[in-house]
TrEMBL record:
<keyword id="KW-0051">Antiviral defense</keyword>
<feature type="domain" description="CRISPR type III-associated protein">
    <location>
        <begin position="24"/>
        <end position="198"/>
    </location>
</feature>
<dbReference type="GO" id="GO:0051607">
    <property type="term" value="P:defense response to virus"/>
</dbReference>
<dbReference type="InterPro" id="IPR005537">
    <property type="entry name" value="RAMP_III_fam"/>
</dbReference>
<protein>
    <recommendedName>
        <fullName>CRISPR type III-associated protein domain-containing protein</fullName>
    </recommendedName>
</protein>
<dbReference type="Pfam" id="PF03787">
    <property type="entry name" value="RAMPs"/>
</dbReference>
C-alpha cells in the first residue's frame, strides 16, 4: 500500500481555498481548438437557382462550388473574444495526471482511443496498463478533479485570448482558424478544500516541474500529433506564490510521478 493512499481517505472542508491564475502561450506556429461547429458560407446568392435545377435535370451537373466558401473551422468565441473552453483545459490537466500518477484510474486516457504514432511515442510509457486500483479509496486524480459520483474541488474558467492574432490555415483543403505563435490566453482555476499536496498536483498537471515554475511544452488541440505546426503551448504563472513551490515539491516527492516529453 502506497503512502499517499491514507491521505486521500477523508474529505473535509478544511483546506486551501483560492485562485490559481494562469497564462498560456502558443509556442508552435498555430493552435486550433475547435468549436465543433464549422461554417460553409454561401458567398453568392442563388438567384439563378431555377436555371441550376434545369441544368441538372438536363443531365449536366452544375458546378456549385463557386457559390460556397471553403469549409472553415472556427475557434470558440465568447463576447467576441477567442477562448479555449475550461473543459478542454481541464481535460488536458486530467490526462497528464492520469498518465503521471501510478495507479490513478484512467477516465479520460482510456477513452482517448488514439492510435497516433506520436501519442504512443510520447505516452506509451513506463505507465502500466489501465487499472482500477482504488476499490474502496478514491483515486487521487478523481479526488481532485471529480468524477461521475464525486464533486470536483477545482473549477476551470475558460481561457481568453488576450494577445496575438488569428489566421486561417489551410490543412487538406479546409481552413482552420488558428491562433499564431506568441498568442496568449489568460484563465484561472478556483479551488477549495485542497491539501497543499493537491495544489502541487494541479500545478504538475499544468506542466510545472520545479522551483523555477516554468511550464513545460504541452500538446493541445487539433493536429497536435499529426502536424508539427500545431498544438504546442506553455503555461506560466503571472503571480507565483511561495506556497506553489513547496506544494509542487511535496507532490513530486510523495507521488514520484512519471514525466513525458511532449516535444516531438
Ligand atoms: Zn480517478
Amino acid at each position: 500500500m502506497q503512502r499517499f493512499h491514507t491521505q486521500y481517505t477523508e474529505r473535509n472542508s478544511i483546506g486551501l481555498e483560492g485562485v490559481l491564475e494562469l497564462e498560456m502561450e502558443v509556442v508552435s506556429d498555430y493552435l486550433h481548438v475547435g468549436s465543433g461547429v464549422y461554417d460553409v458560407e454561401i458567398i453568392k446568392p442563388l438567384e439563378n437557382i431555377d436555371q441550376l435545377v434545369e441544368t441538372a435535370l438536363k443531365g449536366t451537373i452544375p458546378d456549385v462550388n463557386k457559390y460556397f466558401s471553403p469549409v472553415t473551422h472556427e475557434m470558440n468565441r465568447y463576447l467576441g473574444k477567442v477562448i479555449i473552453p475550461g473543459s478542454t483545459i481541464k481535460g488536458l490537466v486530467r490526462t497528464r495526471l492520469e498518465l503521471s500518477i501510478r495507479d490513478a484510474c484512467f477516465i479520460v486516457s482510456r477513452n482517448s482511443n488514439t492510435s497516433s504514432a506520436a501519442y504512443k511515442r510520447i505516452f506509451r510509457n513506463p505507465r502500466p496498463r489501465p487499472t482500477d486500483r482504488f476499490p474502496q479509496r478514491v483515486c487521487p486524480v478523481c479526488d481532485l478533479l471529480g468524477n461521475s459520483g464525486l464533486a470536483s474541488k477545482v473549477s476551470f474558467s475558460d481561457f481568453i485570448m488576450t494577445q496575438g492574432k488569428v489566421d486561417y490555415v489551410n490543412v487538406n483543403g479546409q481552413y482552420y482558424e488558428s491562433c499564431v505563435k506568441g498568442s496568449r490566453f489568460r484563465g484561472k482555476v478556483l479551488y477549495r478544500s485542497l491539501k497543499p499536496i493537491e495544489l502541487g498536483m494541479l500545478l504538475y498537471g499544468f506542466g510545472f516541474r520545479d522551483k523555477k515554475l516554468e511550464g513545460k511544452v504541452m500538446l493541445i488541440g487539433r493536429f497536435k500529433y499529426s502536424d508539427r505546426r500545431f498544438g504546442r503551448v506553455r503555461f506560466s504563472l503571472p503571480s507565483p506564490k511561495q506556497e506553489y513551490v513547496k506544494a509542487l515539491e511535496d507532490f513530486v516527492r510523495t507521488f514520484k510521478p512519471f514525466d513525458y516529453n511532449e516535444e516531438w
